[in-house]
Design goal:
- This protein is mainly β.
- The protein is about 5% helix and about 65% strand.
- The chain is globular.
Amino acid sequence: MKTLRIVPLLAALALSAIGPASVLGAPSCHPIDASGVGQDLGGGNTVARISDGGLLQGTTAASFAITGFSGTVASFAGTVTFTTNRATLTANVAGTLDVATGAFSATTSGMTGTGKLAGVTGSLAFDGLEDVATGAFSATTSGMTGTGKLAGVTGSLAFDGLENLATGVFTETIGGSICVDLAP
């Protein structure tokens, strides 16, 4: 279940669309060029720090549990909380992981925010692959939706990283852009 440690970073990217409102009320695009360093704590729990991301700065904490198995495919569910200096965002996450191939897919739902993210709702869907022998992984978003402050959100994100399978420490880069009209 090592792949579950990137889910918090993916879900946290829903936050990256929150920033200063555009003066003209037109969509503005926010480039994402972040890095993450974290620890797989075992038992479906992870923590990470995201930096160099402009709007995307903070920490994540996540907890996941296996909810079923069908052949080599495990279903999982849990929550991830992303904390910045002015807000938190908590999202429910559910997905599948093929433990033989490393292929995974997940979606976020039921987001709740506090502070600057109060009232935020939306979802992210993403697909990826982890090399179960080396710990290298990559993922891309396959869908993004939002209402309220995130109405009309568009964009794409890509994730690449590596986990030290002996220690559980992982690093990754997150790139792409998110576009949204943040005018009041």
